[in-house]
Write a structure and sequence with these properties.
The protein is α/β, with parallel strands linked by helices and about 550 residues long. It is built from 18 helices and 14 strands. The longest helix is centred in the C-terminal third of the chain and has 25 residues, at about 485-510.
Length: about 550
């Protein structure tokens, strides 16, 4: 492969993507997504923001230790504490990278950092040099670059290269730029930054104006050779450039762009579905490349053309991006081997124990309906009903309601060796069930988001439920799937409570950030808070921002 014309894919699903409102992945879910991204063969995985919390640190550390193939990267603001945490988190990686950044626009420097250009430049150089003590692979970003003074950007990037940065990122942090404008900025920086020929130029585009993919591709035409993307386009505010859109535009229009990638395209579909299931962010049916309608044709004219020759209305083959084209349907008479082959065809690899549990759930479902679809198989495999680390397990429940009666519910919940029974009431059966679960688990929070959808069409479809609960300033998502939407609701709600309890226990035991605070006075706040949708470094401890 011609390295000069190869575009590297820097996936930030686990970092910027997780900053989407309502997404809260635990360490095992992050590791699962990272392993899937490795199968997709992305070049770099931005695994998280290690200083943000003990949970984030451990997730990055686990990914660095276990995931082979891609470079494992952690994000760090331009201060000592962040870089120390990041360096420690990635130290066991096969190949590790530290990605450090600081704002460069007048708006950010004046109102957020309260620094002048000289101070920003000095801190950028110090942070890159410090990062080089942990790894030779250091990426430097100038946050809000597209609203920055170009001459200052040239000086800032030149200083970063001299300090040892090997990748320079030019982020469109707030989704402000236009394609032609962005391409010209990339060309100017490549030409004028001292040492610019010796580094990889990277771009990170947000979709506030719906231009993230267009801007990314324009930058590639202008010489950028790393693209920072997220699966399904998730991320802060309107999201990031979507991995699937960028890679398939490059692959489909090689005649125009003249570059290549190293991604395993057949894993795009299963990666998209896994990210959607674990984050709770559903993919719109009309979403490019990965949406359910991406390769469907309703118009008679289109159907006629496709039946005669697919290329009349399809510029990509569905199987290229992992859309299933097989005709194997599974039901209650299907065996374990057929089930395993189906999973492998869907890009799902399970251990023998996991396969056994998944097959049992499949058979239970198959007893209730004639045919189990691919979507339902994927749902029951990815959305387990509980793990051994859960404090509470749902044993059974009953609920009833109607227009002329008060909805009531009763639950039996297992906590260790203790069996807890409680009843509840509410405005509806789900509300009553939540009330009963609250009493059984001594949960004093509230349900802040509730979504239910069908995994497939038809009245016998599985019900998939996504919830968000909040208590004491913390929030957590929960997901589950079942043939009965009331059961799925109970399981999802209990899943969220269990995850919230796990997060609370982990936070209580955490000492890493407090130790870093005591040893590194540059750290303004151990837990970054959102400021205008971004996170970053504050010169006077006035607030933290940082996403690029």
């Amino acid at each position: 492969m011609d390295e000069k014309n190869r575009v590297r894919f820097f996936d930030t699903t686990l970092r910027d993507g997780e900053q989407s409102p309502g997404i809260n992945l635990n360490a095992s879910e992050k590791l699962e997504i990272a392993e899937q991204l490795a199968r997709l063969r992305v070049d770099i995985i931005e695994a998280g923001f290690p200083i943000a919390s003990e949970g984030d640190f451990k997730a990055v550390e686990a990914i660095a230790r276990k995931v082979k193939g891609p470079v494992i990267c952690g994000l760090a603001r331009a201060n000592e504490a962040d870089i120390v945490a990041c360096g420690n988190a990635i130290k066991d990686a096969e190949r590790g990278r530290i990605h450090t950044f600081i704002s460069s626009s007048k708006t950010h420097m004046q109102h957020q950092l309260r620094m002048n250009e000289a101070q920003v430049l000095e801190l950028a150089v110090k942070s890159v040099r410090h990062a080089k003590a942990f790894t030779d692979d250091v990426e430097f970003s100038a946050m809000d670059a597209t609203r920055s003074d170009v001459e200052f950007l040239i000086r800032l990037f030149s200083a970063a290269v001299e300090a040892g940065a090997t990748t320079l990122n030019v982020p469109d942090t707030v989704g402000y730029t236009m394609p032609d404008e962005y391409a010209e900025l990339i060309r100017t920086l490549r030409a004028k930054v001292t040492g610019g020929d010796d580094v990889i130029w990277s771009v990170h585009c947000h979709d506030d104006l719906g231009l993230a993919t267009a801007n990314t591709l324009s930058a590639v035409k202008a010489g950028a050779r790393q693209v920072e993307v997220a699966m399904n386009g998730i991320g802060e505010r309107a999201g990031n450039a979507a991995l699937e859109e960028v890679v398939m535009a490059i692959e489909t229009r090689r005649d125009l762009l003249g570059v290549v990638t190293g991604l395993e395209l057949r894993h795009i579909g299963d990666t998209s579905r896994k990210v959607s299931k674990l984050t709770g962010y559903r993919v719109p049916r009309n979403k490019a490349i990965v949406g359910a309608n991406a390769f469907m044709h309703e118009s008679g004219i289109h159907q006629d053309g496709v039946l005669k020759e697919r290329s009349t209305y399809e510029i990509m083959k569905p199987e290229t991006v992992g859309h299933s084209t097989d005709n194997i349907y599974l039901g209650k008479h299907s065996g374990r081997h057929a089930f395993q082959v189906k999973l492998q065809g869907m890009g799902i690899d399970l251990t023998p124990d996991e396969l056994g549990r998944a097959f049992k759930k499949f058979k239970d479902l198959a007893d209730q309906k004639k045919v189990v679809t691919d979507e339902e198989i994927e749902a029951i495999v990815l959305l387990d009903k509980g793990t051994v680390s859960d404090q509470f397990h749902l044993v059974s429940f009953q609920s009833f309601g109607g227009p002329s009666v008060i909805p009531m519910a009763a639950v039996r919940v297992q906590k260790g060796d203790e069996l807890i029974e409680q009843t509840g009431s509410g405005d509806g059966q789900v509300d009553a069930l939540c009330d009963a679960i609250n009493k059984a688990t001594d949960f004093h929070g509230r349900l802040t988001r509730y979504e239910v959808s069908a995994t497939t069409e038809g009245t016998d479809s599985l019900g998939e439920v996504f919830v968000m609960v909040a208590e004491g300033g913390s929030s957590m998502t929960g997901r589950s799937v079942a043939a009965d939407v009331i059961e799925a609701s109970a399981l999802a709600y209990l899943n969220a409570i269990n995850r919230l309890l796990q997060k609370r226990a982990l936070k209580k035991d955490s000492k890493t950030n407090s130790e870093l605070m005591r040893s590194n006075p540059m750290q303004a706040d151990p837990e970054p808070v959102s400021v205008g949708g971004e996170r970053g470094v504050s010169g006077e401890g006035k607030g933290l921002a940082g996403s690029k």
